[in-house]
Amino acid sequence: MIAYLKGRVVERGPETLVVECGGVGYEVALPAYLADHWSPQEGEVVELHVSYQVGANHPKPLLVGFRRRAEREFFERFITVDGMGPTRAVRAMARPVHEIADAIERRDVNFLKRLPGLGERTAQKVVAALCGKVAKYALLQEGPVARPAATADFREEVLEVLTRQLGHRAAEARRMVEEALRRNPHVATAEELFQEVYRSQRKPAGEEEA
To answer: pTM for the full model?
Structure first.
């Protein structure tokens, strides 16, 4: 299975790249939000986190490329929704991952149903399947990020992800985690802490600390 590619762009299409790695050209599909806003030129070296998709409905392997591992993780959760195959998900992801994840966590069906190819029924399925599970991805920031490092416990894991995968500054990430733990000191896993960090960041202006 292919999970990561680093190589030279040899061909650029409207929604795909062909990346040469070790003398082999890999055709990689880009989700709509990335295809619309990222234009590497032929000859440019790129790094892509790849979701490798093959199955009964997709006998020809489909490689879907992302610039961040966290974006690939979100895509692989997105396609677990009933009726949401890889090709449909690639087209539907016309907005950045953090916007889609935020809409899911807010149960904003109106936002989701406007994504290409979804409609209200599928948007409701997305919310039902993923609400409460994608807060981590709603915290994604724009800009380059560093590679993740090994972590000691779930709090350090969350700090590492916030800074190295999601693009937050170290001091900002630590503040976010500390505020979340003050609001709910009983969180016991990284997933729960991401949820609490997300809730803290969405706290209405002027709301007092609990």
So the answer is: 0.70
